[in-house]
Specification:
- By secondary structure, this protein is an alpha+beta fold.
- It has a single domain, classed as GHMP Kinase, N-terminal domain (Ribosomal Protein S5, domain 2, 2-Layer Sandwich).
- It contains four helices and ten strands, in the order ββββαβαβββββαα.
- It has helices spanning 73-86, 125-142, 226-252, 260-268; strands spanning 15-18, 27-33, 36-46, 59-65, 99-106, 150-159, 170-173, 183-194, 209-215, 218-219.
- Strand 2 and strand 3 (36-46) form a beta hairpin.
């Protein structure tokens, strides 16, 4: 079954990463699959409120904001999900009694309604994947929080042929905004790529091992079997590997820019630095 854009089932849209260098944060980045874009910033380690202080590790806060309107219950739920996804990749014990704050912002949704939170269709899987990747890129850009791995995410869609209601759904990688109405399920898969994980035999020597951290894969109006889930997981892992390669290429090409606050610190040396951080 052909896709609307002519892509193959296992083909990602064009991915793009831009390290924004936003002022008064320690790291920031924009990540997109085609028109599905997100922006994220990282502040920290910074001073933490006494009631949130942990004596053994840094406190992690994640805030997700829709394209428009105020963050609602669904945005807060997504914030909690992203926090649980990112924690395994961070060495928060290296900075106890501090705060690491991540703010993610949806930059798309004008056509599909997704990205508007409760005011629209909520957060579809491709947008969730772009938010996860933007947060990972911002953490890499900040370089202020030790990491034991990089989290990369992609979406898988169950695409049904509109000409036949009896045919089995086809699994496709990275469904676009235009394909949302044709989906009968799917979800986001998040993997951590790390050299600390055991490497399987006959694996690519240039790609670190990966581990599935989270997925919300589901079927609309019915169940799915183990074989379908394994096919979806493998398709997602291959796609996440391409995202990891995009991260690697962006670093090798020298696209990482140090935030303006770091440049100011070097120039001012002894002058006190305002710890107040500007969120996106």
């Amino acid at each position: 079954m052909s896709r609307l854009e002519g892509r193959k089932n296992e083909q990602l849209r064009t991915t793009h990463i831009k390290y924004e260098g936003l002022d008064r944060v320690d790291g920031s980045a924009r990540f997109g699959f085609g028109e599905t874009e997100s922006l994220a910033s990282v502040s920290g380690p910074i001073e933490v409120r006494p009631n949130s202080e942990s004596p053994s590790q840094a406190t992690l806060e994640v805030h997700i904001r829709p394209l428009a309107a105020i963050a609602g219950t669904d945005s807060k739920a997504l914030s909690a999900t992203l926090k649980s996804i990112l924690i395994p990749a961070l060495l928060l014990s290296q900075h106890p009694r501090t705060l690491v704050q991540i703010v993610g912002q949806a930059l798309c949704g004008s056509e599909s309604g997704a990205g508007y939170g409760s005011a629209g269709r909520g957060w579809h899987a491709s947008l969730v994947a772009s938010l996860i990747n933007a947060c990972s890129a911002a953490l890499v850009n900040a370089s202020s929080v030790p990491m034991k791995g990089v989290v990369c995410a992609v979406a898988i869609g169950r695409l049904r042929d509109p000409s036949s209601s009896l045919s089995s759904p086809t699994l496709v990688l990275d469904p676009s905004e235009a394909e949302l109405s044709r989906l009968v399920g799917g979800g986001c898969f998040a993997f951590m790529f790390s050299s600390t994980l055991s490497k399987p035999l006959q694996s690519d020597a240039d790609v670190p091992s990966s581990s599935l951290l989270w997925t919300n894969y589901t079927a609309m109006g019915g169940a799915f079997g183990d074989a379908e889930f394994e096919e979806a997981r493998q398709l997602a892992e291959n796609g996440a590997t391409l995202v990891w390669q995009s991260f690697k290429d962006s670093l090798q090409n020298g696209q990482v820019s140090r935030p303006a606050t770091e440049l100011k610190k070097k120039a001012l040396d002894e002058e006190p630095v305002d710890d107040e951080k500007m969120e996106i």
